[in-house]
Design a protein that fits this description.
By secondary structure, this protein is α+β, with helices and mostly antiparallel strands. Helix content is 39%, strand content 26%.
Length: 188
Amino acid sequence: MNGDPWEGHLDPGERLLWTGAPARGLRFDFDQVIVSVSGGVFLAFALLAFVESSRGLWGGYWQMASGYVLWFMVIFPLFALPFIWEGVMMAFGHYITDARIRAQTRYALTDRRAIIAIGGREPSLRSWPIGPETEVDYSPGDEASLRFATGPRPDGGEVMEKARSGFNRIRDGEQVMQLIRKVQAGTV
């Protein structure tokens, strides 16, 4: 045994051609910026609700209130706190979540399939066969992406949209694309 973490996941005779991981750290994409803007609007409304509902407290009106009115002045602003938290998560939290998931993600390419393993509290391991019919979308760059798997993704209500999965934000994208072409051609 060579201590290879993929060893227990490979089929007999299957050869490992490449392993890698997505780039680490915070990344800002156009899609994420749109989510942040809508999250910022949500956060602004939640903060406005909190400030306006607590006006009785910071305006000193609580000194004149008694009974249920005083309790209402104290408790009602607390209902805005979950919405403030959700607004913060919508505006900024998804960057941290994305970075955490990428830090726990590992990729492997074999002579038969592509494998994506994600660690964490709920680890997952998915694999997709790579054959001549496999469509591969390649986005070159310093952090290249290769998408080779299509599956349904719920997009609100009953609408289903096709989502592309694959190796995202990898440093050696051109090399991996060439390996995939060789696997598709059966020359590896």
